[in-house]
Amino acid sequence: MRPDRVSNSRATHGCLPPGALGPYLASLPNMSLAEYFSHGISSGFRVGFDRSEPIGPARGNFPSVQQNPLVVRGYLAAELDQATIRLAGPGESVQVNPIGLIPKSGQPGKFRLIDDLSSPEGRSVNEGIDPVLSSLSYASVDQAVASVCLAGRGAWMAKLDLRSAYRRVPVHPDDQPLLGMAWDDRIFCDRALPFGLRSAPKVFTAVANALAWAMQCEGIGDLIHYLDDFFFWSPATSRDCHTALEIAVPLCNKLGFPVAPHKVVGPATSLIFLGTEIDSLRQEIRLPEDKLSFLKQALRQWGDKRAATKREVQSLIGHLNHAAKVVRPGRPFLRGLIDTMKIQRRQHHRVRLSVACRGDIVWWQRLLEWRVFLSIGSHPSPPVLRRLWALGLRGFCCFIREMVSPLLATVFVGSVNCPQGTSPDRGCPGGLG
């Protein structure tokens, strides 16, 4: 099903102020890209839907919205007021999609409304969007760490987070009927990028890249961003990081991307970026205390389990995979969980936890009882030597060689005293290296 064309009178009001980015877009080396941004901001961005087969009827809304009706009504009222959603017109053909609420991390009582655009399976809006439009490379913690390493010990870091960033990006009127939702016997259409749309991350990242270009035009040289999280740095002897924050915050507001004040952090020598704490003075990265405590508690709850749903196993893998960014040798100890997760097709189906799977869980439980961090610093030349000294009941250490960048990364678990009869230069009998 293709949505009926909607008259220009129903075009988005333009969540981003038209013309504000114009002077910066004019200096883009790629003029076709500049035209894409300019047209998208003024008329709305296409979501990439291209399907000749009809979309199937969606099932009802998720229980989370039925359990929190006041939250949904408040959300829809606010979005109508901001013109980021609209009521469907009389006789307008709209694809109604299920909606649900997901609690916002670290914000008790706050929720994010999600459109399930992947329902029904095989005949959904997302099925009509080419997977290529969801494929992109994100900035990573590793990039931030490498930049801080090059800036040297005591480097300044800062970050900011855009407020309701997706909802600032307008959707083209012809695509709005694809983004329908029903509540209180009324049908609404999204005018801005919704959470749950396959192409939304790529569309938003392109717009955020334009914002980063504007920052560079204003003299901010050292920055990266992951979606709406922007990260800045400078050497300890420079005020560039301070200046970057002084320029970036008002610039974002001027260009239609209000900054969340409580998420402006720094300049500092230690901060959390993408869920990982980076410390330029101690030259290490580590899991934030709240994430570490949460993970320990989650693993304790898995201690006596003999079976779990596929969704539960996937969730645990996600948390441990993030922890493995700091505990690099932990990645092999996800294999049992991953193999178990693959057994069942449906998210709600239960699967027995194999011996290998339970062994992975026990390994992580014991490891996280120690203070775990990844030491970072400069090294004259590759190959990089990563040393793990993991002192458990018996204790072992290993050397892992890897041709990467000229940086020395050392993972420490607990203290750094080698077991008797070993040394940091020789490794341990029966070790992994």
UniProtKB/TrEMBL annotation:
PROSITE patterns: RT_POL (PS50878). It comes from the Eukaryota. InterPro entries: DNA/RNA_pol_sf, Hepadnavirus_pol/RT, Rev_trsase/Diguanyl_cyclase, RT_dom. CDD domains: RT_DIRS1. Residues 83-278 form the Reverse transcriptase domain. It holds the Pfam family RVT_1. PANTHER family: REVERSE TRANSCRIPTASE DOMAIN-CONTAINING PROTEIN. This is Reverse transcriptase domain-containing protein. It comes from Amphimedon queenslandica (Sponge).
